Structures are given as structure tokens and as C-alpha cells.
Amino acid sequence: MTYCYKYPHPSVTTDCVIFGFDGTKLKVLLVKRALEPFQGRWAFPGGFMKMDESAEEGALRELQEETGLQGAYIRQFHTFTAPNRDPRERVITIAYYALVRMQEVKGGDDAAEARWFASDDIPQLAFDHDQILRKATKALRQQIHFEPVGFELLPEEFTIKELQNLYEAILDVRFDRRNFYNKMKRLEMLEQTNETVNPSNKKEAFLFRFNKAKYEELKQKGFKLEF
Amino acid sequence: MTYCYKYPHPSVTTDCVIFGFDGTKLKVLLVKRALEPFQGRWAFPGGFMKMDESAEEGALRELQEETGLQGAYIRQFHTFTAPNRDPRERVITIAYYALVRMQEVKGGDDAAEARWFASDDIPQLAFDHDQILRKATKALRQQIHFEPVGFELLPEEFTIKELQNLYEAILDVRFDRRNFYNKMKRLEMLEQTNETVNPSNKKEAFLFRFNKAKYEELKQKGFKLEF
DNA sequence: TCAAAAGTGTTCGCTATACACCCATGG
DNA sequence: CCATGGGTGTATAGCGAACACTTTTGA
């Protein structure tokens, strides 16, 4: 017991809701807790913030340890401070969500068991992590209205249908295939490649990539995605 | 020195960006720091989070002490964690913004000098509070796209022009007076009263109030304010 | 030959936007 | 009587939403 203060200080952790996309469904990476409390329950990766790093650096570090990803896209969305959210002692957590390409995620260094879960089929979580997930989902939905966000979640090349699935999964709505196509065309955010792919054994589908310049421009000037 | 931990813990404060509206300009309430560091500089009201209260409760308490307002509308928007943001020791701050009616704000209990500043004419601030203000403004702008927010900032009754001024001040844009009127009419969010007021010594202007039912409904279903 | 998936329009109605007109008031 | 501010209307262009047609391919 070496660090002493005149007034009590809470512990500060960062937690990271890691979103991925498999072409059909939105997924969330969870790790199984090895220790009490909530041993065996699933939870978001996270850990204590170090004294010489910002919360963002801490979250990136945790993410790197868990997924092997460097410099992933993360965003702080809320800090959870209910006095009894951790049964042991006062812990507040600064929560981030990350958008990653599932394909690029390797198993983490940590021995802990980790698994992707469909975002609409999540097991019982440790602590207040269910509340954290709800808020993360809400924040992501808000963000997607102002910034094109698909780039972070999709592979380099993808079909229109995959992009549509992504938007549908995040917003939990259904779009008309043709209207979605027209809208994307009007925004000029996509570039068609020559390659095709045949995911369904029916007609072949073109692969697209993001037009990076337009993508950044729309991200800048606060693009309004209505739907 | 009575509270000891195995690992170092940061101090945790809440800061509150208090927005008000005087009918023309968006305002921010600042207090002059009485102590070092940054003695004499303007800053946002704030203070240490207590161990038995959530950050939100802490922010409301600080706000009450400063303005006399109970249960004001506040919203957490970001937590600032740069390791050296406070020169004394590691302090992270959970930042809120509050929307209040300037008319209802009484001087605080605190002896500290407090003043309203126009949001586009802010003096040099203590700590990283300039950065906090920028982020608060941005968050408020985002919010106004999804939730009608005027209710918290305006008196019970107000003219259309005042409402327009509010939106223009927050979003930093100009609207056509007639289009703004038409839009508000279509949304059915306002109720016209019989009273008029004569702010300019020209033609009298009707006073409006919010249609609370419609207001709440739009707030619920995530209203899209385009402009 | 038929069902399913994918590429490409077309039409319609709403609304954002630009702009015009009238009324009331004080100088 | 005219400048200023306020209440109300109208025309147009563009977009969201609904929907139709065609092609490809495997069963």
C-alpha cells in the first residue's frame, strides 16, 4: 500500500466495446472473465488506466493486447460512474467503442478466452456491461448519421449488399435494395472494381471499394445519412 | 494522508459547461479561479467527485451550488484525461454541459466571481478548458439535430425570432426567417399564445410556447432537424 | 423453366430553399 | 409615407420511398 492521498480516489479503468462485421451481422468481441468477481461471465476487454497514458492510449493498448490491432479506430462514448458498479471498490470506467475488421483480428496475447458474438444475441454480461453495450450501440447509431463509418468495419473490397447489411445491422432497419444503391451512387462515395464475387451461387456481384477522397470529404463536412 | 492504494489513482473531477440564452446570443457561465493554478483565470464550475455519488450527481450538485438551479438539464459529453492537463497531479475530468434558463439563475453560494460570456467571445481559460468548450459546443450541435433542445434554454414563452436566434447561435448558421417559421409550423411543436410582445418598437410579435406533448413525442422518436 | 440474386431505371410526393406580398408601427 | 420588423403564402428543385424491368445462374 504505497500510494496515499488526502481524499479517497476511485480506480479508473477503460473498457472497449469492439464491433466487427462478418458481411451479414454486427458482432461484438467479448472475453470470459478468469477472476472474481463475475468469474466465467463474458465482459468487454479493459483494464486500469496507467498514470502516464491518456484513457485513449490505454484503450488502444488494451485493444492491441486483445486483438493484435495497432491504431484501430476507437471513440470514447461515455464514462460510467455508478458508485456500486463494481462490488469490490469504487471503479469508474471510461468506455470506448472500436470499429475493426474481423478478418484482421488475431487471437490476443492474453490467455483469456475471447469470442465474437452477434450483437443481437449477447450472453449475460459482467458488471454493468449490458448497459455499456446499449449505450455503445446508441452512440454508434448516432455517429453513422454524420460520418461514413463503414470503411473501418469492411474489408478493402465489398459488395453493395454487404454495405447495406452493415447499415441495416447497425441501425436495425431494412432498406430497399434499389434505393440504397441509388443513394450510394448519388453520394459518389463508392468506386466499382472490375472484380466480381459469387457469394450466393446466383448472379455474380461487383466488388466496390470506398472512394477515399470523397469518403474523407463527407466525413469532414458532416454528411447527413437520412434513410 | 489517509487513503492508500496499491496502485496510483488519479483524481476525478466533474466540470460543467453551462449554456444559457439571452434571446439573441448563446452564453456560457464562467467562474474566476480564486486559487492557483491559473489563479484569476476564467474556468468552468466543477469540483471533485465524491465517493458516494455518481458523476452526474456530482455535476448537478456543483451546478446547484453555482446557479441555485435544482435538477437542471445536464448531459455528459466527454472525459478529458491528458496526463498533464493539471500541473499539480493527475486529474481526469468528466465533463457535462448544462442547458439552463438564464433568467432563473441566481448568484451561487460560492463567493467566487461568476459571469456570463457570449459563446463567441470567451476569454482565455484555465487548464484545457478551451478544448472542453470546443467539444461541448460540438456535442450540443450534434444533439440539436436529434432532439429539440430549445425548451431547456428558453423561457416559458418566447417569440419565433428568439427561437430562430437560438438555433442560429448554436449551429452558427443563418436561416431564412420565413422558412424557419414554415418549418416550425409543419412540425406542430409550437403553440401560439394570445399575448404579444414588442421588442423592437415596430410591429408586435406573438409569443409562443412549446407544445409539450409534441415536443416529447419528437424527442422520443429521434426527430431529424435538417436545416 | 423457374426462383433467387443482382444491376438499373422511373414515378410520385414531400420538403428544403428561394423568394414575394401584406400589415403594423414609429419616425 | 417610408423604413423596419413581423405574419403568411407560393414556386421549384431535389431527394426519399415505392415500385418495375432485365439479366444471370443453379437447380
Quick synopsis:
The structure is a homodimer of 227-residue chains. Chain A is an alpha+beta fold and 227 residues long.
The CA-CA distance between the termini of chain A, in Å, is 56 Å
Q: Measured on Cα atoms, how large is the radius of gyration of chain A?
A: 20 Å
Q: What percent strand of chain A? A: 25-35%
User: What structural class results from the helix and strand content of chain A?
Assistant: alpha+beta
Query: Could you say what the CATH topology of the largest domain in chain A is called?
Result: Nucleoside Triphosphate Pyrophosphohydrolase
What share of residues of chain A is helical? Answer: 25-40%
Q: Number of folding domains of chain A?
A: 2
Query: Largest interface here, residues on each chain?
Result: A-B, 34 and 34 residues
Q: In oligomeric terms, what are we looking at?
A: homodimer
Number of strands of chain A: 10
The CATH superfamily of the largest domain in chain A is identified as: Nucleoside Triphosphate Pyrophosphohydrolase
| CATH class group of the largest domain in chain A | Alpha Beta
CATH architecture of the largest domain in chain A: Alpha-Beta Complex
Order of helix and strand elements from N to C terminus of chain A: EEEEEHEEEHHHHEEH
